[in-house]
Design brief:
With about 200 residues, the protein is mostly helical. The protein folds into two domains: about 10-100, Rna Polymerase Sigma Factor, Chain: A (Orthogonal Bundle), CATH 1.10.1740; about 105-200, Winged helix-like DNA-binding domain superfamily/Winged helix DNA-binding domain (Arc Repressor Mutant, subunit A, Orthogonal Bundle). Helices cover about 65% and strands about 0% of the residues. It is built from nine helices and no strands. It is globular.
Length: about 200
């Protein structure tokens, strides 16, 4: 499609990012999410009046959009298409009352496999230059995704995985119960995994 002069700079920017994303450009997905995450979250939070549900719905909307980019009609603004997906998804959520059926065992999940793989940790002495480059790229992507989380969740993810603090230390520093720390980390890891999955099917962690 040839972009007509009548289209805005924002339209052109999004169109270019969509084309790059269709070619599995990881940064294009990240930029699209970064441009619209906050405004979508605020819209959905007004609809459901619950920040946790709004954050989940935000990631679900991006996931659906990214998995169906080939269906996007470039005759319309990408943001219009994206927010329509988010609105429809939220309406379905409200109708089904999914928020009444959530049961999460925080302690059990906290003992399970860590979201951040063992291979992600520093192993420079045993890696060749290509492997170190791959790990560096993974770290950069993870850090970008962490910045897209709700500030409260982003803060404790950094403290846990980048500063290597214990759950107890985080609870004391932030001033919240230990269970709340585990709950936020569980939710943050879930959302990060959804972002990474939607961004690239062949991105292997």
């Amino acid at each position: 499609m040839e972009i007509n002069q009548r289209y805005t700079d924002k339209f052109r920017r999004d169109y270019d990012l969509v084309q790059r994303a269709l070619k599995n450009d990881q940064q294009a997905y990240t930029q699209l999410l970064g441009f619209y995450h906050d405004s979508m979250f605020f819209m959905l939070n007004r609809m459901v009046s619950n920040e946790s549900d709004a954050e989940d719905l935000t990631i679900e909307a991006f996931t659906k959009a990214f998995n169906n980019l080939e269906k996007y009609n470039s005759a319309y603004a990408f943001s219009t298409w994206l927010f329509k997906i988010a609105t429809n998804n939220c309406i379905d959520f409200l109708r089904s009352n999914k928020n009444k059926n959530k049961n999460i065992s925080i302690d059990q999940d906290a003992k399970g496999p860590d979201f951040f793989p063992e291979s992600f940790h520093i192993t420079a002495l045993t890696q060749n230059p290509e492997e170190r480059l791959i790990d560096t790229q993974k770290e950069q992507i993870l850090r970008r995704v962490v910045e897209m989380l709700h500030p409260d969740n982003s803060k404790i993810v950094k403290m846990r995985y980048f500063d290597d603090l214990s759950y107890k230390d985080i609870a004391e520093k932030v001033g919240i119960p230990l269970g709340t720390v585990k709950a936020r980390l569980y939710r943050a890891k879930k959302l990060m995994l959804e972002i990474l999955k939607s961004s690239s099917d062949d991105f292997d962690f």
